[in-house]
Amino acid sequence: MPSSVLGARGPRDAETRQELARQLRHTRQQLPIWAGREAIVKAVREHDTVILMAETGSGKTTQVPQFLHEAGVCSESAPLIGITQPRRVAATSLASRVAAEMGEPDPASVPRVPVKKRKAAGGAAPAGRTLGKVGYAIRFDDRTGPDARLRFMTDGLLLREIMGRREQAVEAGAPSHAMLERYGVIIIDEAHERTVDTDLLLGLVRRIQRARREAYDAWRTRQGADSSMDVAPTLLKVVVMSATLDAQKFASFFAEPRISPNDGPVPAPILYVAGRQFQVDVCHTMEPQADLTAAARQTVFQIHTGLAPGDILVFSTGAEEIESLRAELERLNPVVEAHFEQEGKPGSRLHVVPLYAALGAGAIAKAFEPTPPGCRKVVIATNIAETSITLPGVQYVIDYGLAKERGLTRQGQAGGGSVSSLQALPISQSAADQRTGRAGRVSKGRCFRLYTEAAYEDLDVETVPEILRSDLTNTCLTLYSLGINPLTFDWISMPDKSEVAASTMSLYHLGAVVEPRAERRECGMEITPLGRRMVGLPLPAALARMLIAGGEMGPHVARQVRDLVAILSSDRASILHVPSQSSNSASRAAGAQAGPSDFDRAHEAHAKLAHVSGDHATQLNALYAYLDALQEAKASAARMAELGTPDAKGHKSKGQKSALHMHMKAWCRDNWISDKSLVQVLDIRRQLQQLCRAAKIICDDDATPSMPGTPRNKVPRMTPLGTPRSSGTGDASDDDSDDSHPAAGLYVTRGGARGRGAAGAEQEREDYAELRKCIFLGRSSEYAFKQNDGSYLRPGSDLTFRIHPSSTLMNVKPLAIVFEELVLTTQLYARTVSAIESAWVDEDANPRTRAAA
Ligand code: ADP
Ligand code: MG
Fold it and tell me: In the chain, at which end, N or C, are there fewer CB atoms within 10 A of the end residue's CB?
């Protein structure tokens, strides 16, 4: 029996599914949480809110929803159990797993539901033949069928649902947010992570729960007086699940005021489920380690050659670091072999599996696959493996002690913008202990911390909730849109007031909020029609503002801005691959030929794509160059096919697809463009395409104008049938056939409005002025003027910085610039920079906003 059920996607018949579910049942019964089954169901029946505390891997996420479903906790009028996750990839992969355990069809193997159809079906996914009781919903991708009973989703998505019905509700004088009537239970999972969205949800769900309780109690009282037969309102049960011992805080937050009016609120009950935890020996390094990759490699080597069998889990920081360690470990295999040979021992190979969000659900499935015979598995992960994903069989943990959170630190005064640090930051002691615990699930384990004991002692005891350390612009916008004043919201942890003020100020500059009318004073600020449009776009406020501005400048600019927003939304800072100086020196040390360094070669390649106006346009050029190359490659493949096979009616053989794939990979390599980021950008771009359609932002390459009478069959397909992409995340390494390529059928403009030849010429002429204006409108405070010494100063602040060395404007140094972010490396740099006209700033002295409002 394979322990992973995610590897084999695709339709299974009902019988096979049932058989698999029967087999998995035994595994389920071994989980620690199984013993708490009845107690959990009972507590949920008896209380409005239950806090559940159990170690990672106990079975919280996969089992508790099933327990509640099997026990029939929900009524027919509120049949859904919603389970929120901080990460998309956890939501989709756990939904697949639970579907398998229940013998239900895997929601991930059902084609995506286009927004348009979903709208027609009143927001829900239309009746798909194969969607069963388990569904998931993440941004732009709702796979919840009409029979759904369990719905895994990101916490951001549930937030949107709460905000969704506002317009109608306000007209009717009802509360300003949705009441989540479809749900009988909301499970807020991974609550200990305390992401901003989780915190917002905790507050909003508590409001909704109380409102539904009041409605229910009122109905009960009315029922007593006269037994008029109106429909009973349903209660909302809430389960908060956490893997660390902070349960008390949630319990008092969800205290039930109604039970004992004399004694004050009674905290929600906390259930503890004892996990399975063997002893883990912890080793710290003697000295701080300068090169963590080298230290990790050495540790893996020592474990592999000296210690008993057992999988290794490495907690690294981000995609780049993971890939570089992966490469090192793969190079280690011959050394390992030689070592075993010398010792005269039979030895095994290292089987290296990377695991980070950008790889998508497919990568998670791979991490669960059984280790090939004669191998030791080494999973290199981000903190996704800390609590979201539990890998069985891990006996050794190697911990970098860092996490790359996009933590934002506000610099100084209100409206001053933010500095985002791309450095990985030290984790907390509690996170380090979580990581350590991963080694003790199957038997005694060992944890190797690549930092000193003193460094551990210096760590924060607990992870500081994100709300206390991040930019609150979107959070405040959300609350304002609900008519809630962020300063009086029921926060589980009240954010810094000055942070709220700063965010409110940027919203004001963006034109999203204005000062309230007298009678609405208590709301703090009032949302504008522009702000409302921005809330409707699930993007950071600045990008939403850009996109709206693009839409107003016509379909041509709208397309450019949409594509730029796709680039800016990806995890990586740039689609251009700039090799770091260190990887360069490493490759030299490894015997690479002398001559121009990688850094120089990349620089040369990027110069061909460079646009005089700056990095935004340069990246857009890179994207369009890729799409052009792709189209050309496809055309020539089609010509070849015509010559070769008589029946080549667009049916490409597997070989042709992979040839195209290899061709484009090589193209990326030659042009120093990161194909990994490109895959991600193209995926986001496709999602944005749907989003733009829904938001009526018309782009000139949109082949599906909402004109009545357009024959459906003329419309290029978005998701090819037969090979549905897993979870909206591309995995460049496997099924990226050209058919399932996000760009397939989209970039191609039939009828030649943007034919290939024209594109190149267009790019030469294009000065991207409107695009830059849109960027400027979105980056309301990220602009600066040059000073005499070549550094830049942001008006109204004393913050000076330079243009990042990777920028195309590094030597140009225009008078005025707009930039994406300030990064602090050896000094403060503005990154992703474009030139702007000083005049725009003057025009803009009065808030820039009203046009759209
Ligand atoms: P918790 O939420 O308490 O951390 P989970 O419910 O996520 O625990 O996981 C319970 C068990 O199910 C874990 O031991 C994990 O290894 C296993 N599991 C989860 N997903 C998969 C999968 N896709 N394939 C195989 N095992 C899985
Ligand atoms: Mg879990």
Answer: N
CA angle 210, 216, 218 (to 5 degrees): 105
- Taking phi over 0 as left and psi of -120 to 50 as alpha, with beta for the rest, 729 belongs to beta
Across 118-122, 578-582, 847-851, least confident range:
847-851
**What CATH number did the domain enclosing 123 receive?**
3.40.50.300
Position 163 confidence tier, pLDDT thresholds 50, 70, 90? confident
Q: Which residues pair with 828 in a beta bridge?
A: 824
**How far apart are the CA of 187 and the centre of ligand 2, in A?**
11
Alpha carbon distance 370, 365 (integer Å): 10
> Is the same domain home to 181 and 253?
yes
| pTM for the whole structure | 0.76
The token pair that represents 704 in the structure block: 């599906």
* Atom 14 (ligand 1) nearest CA: 57
Atom of ligand 1 nearest to the CA of 3: 25
Counting atoms of ligand 1 from 1, which one is nearest the CA of 93? 23
Name the domain count of the chain: 5
345 and 479 inside one domain: no
How far away, in angstroms, is 548 Cα from ligand 2 center? 37
Mean pLDDT in residue range 361-379 = 89
Residue 56 CA, ligand 2 centroid: distance in Å: 6
Among protein residues, the one with the nearest Cα to ligand 1's atom 10 is: 59
Q: Is the pLDDT of residue 750 over 70?
A: no
- Phi then psi for 81, rounded to 5 degrees? -105, 115
Q: Which two tokens stand for residue 721?
A: 């049938």
| Residue at a domain's end among 273, 291, 318 | 273
Least distant ligand from the CA of 94: 1
Two tokens, residue 290: 């300068």
- Do residues 783 and 680 both lie within one domain? no
Residue 412 CA, chain-centre distance (Å), reads: 29
Which residue type does 603 have?
H
- Banded pLDDT at 547 (limits 50, 70, 90): very high
- Sign of torsion, CA 289 294 295 296? positive
96 CA: nearest ligand 1 atom: 23
Domain assignment present for residue 123? The answer is yes
> Strand 408-410 vs strand 418-420: parallel, antiparallel, or unpaired?
antiparallel
Q: Is the pLDDT of residue 439 over 90?
A: yes
Q: Which of 108-112, 117-121, 257-261 has the lowest mean pLDDT?
A: 117-121
* CA 105 to ligand 2 center in whole angstroms: 21
Query: What's the gap in Å between 133 CA and the centre of ligand 1?
Result: 19
Q: Which atom of ligand 1 is nearest to the CA of 54?
A: 3
Closest listed ligand to the CA of 30: 1
**Which residue of 56, 188, 390 sits with most ligand 1 atoms within 8 Å of its CB, as the best mutation to test the pocket?**
390
Looking at ligand 1, which residue's alpha carbon is closest to its atom 15?
Answer: 390
Ligand 1, residues at Cβ distance < 6 Å: 3-6, 31, 54, 56-63, 97, 368, 390, 392
Q: Name the residue with the closest Cα to ligand 1, atom 7.
A: 61
The reported pLDDT for the residue numbered 178 is 87
**371 and 412, same structural domain?**
yes
Residue 761 confidence (pLDDT): 45
How far, in Å, CA of 641 to CA of 618, rounded?
34
Let me know if residue 8 belongs to a domain: no
Indicate the pLDDT class of residue 651, thresholds 50, 70 and 90. low
- Residue 125 and residue 149 share a domain: yes
517 CA to centre of ligand 1 in angstroms: 51
CA of 54 to the centre of ligand 1 (A): 13
Same-domain check for residues 438 and 378: yes
Average pLDDT over residues 25-30: 94
E strand residue ranges, 134-263: 134-138, 141-143, 150-154, 183-188, 237-242
- Determine the structural domain holding residue 787 and report its residue range: 779-851
SS3 (DSSP) at 386: coil
Instruction: Give the pair of three-digit tokens for residue 380.
Output: 């290199």
Task: Name the 3-class secondary structure at 183.
Answer: strand
Q: Which of 26-35, 274-283, 701-710 has the lowest mean pLDDT?
A: 701-710
Last residue of a domain, one of 738, 765, 792: 765
Are residues 445 and 512 located together in one domain of the fold?
no
Asked if 738 and 793 sit in the same domain, the reply is: no
Whether residue 288 lies inside any domain: the answer is: yes
Residue 828 lies in a domain: yes
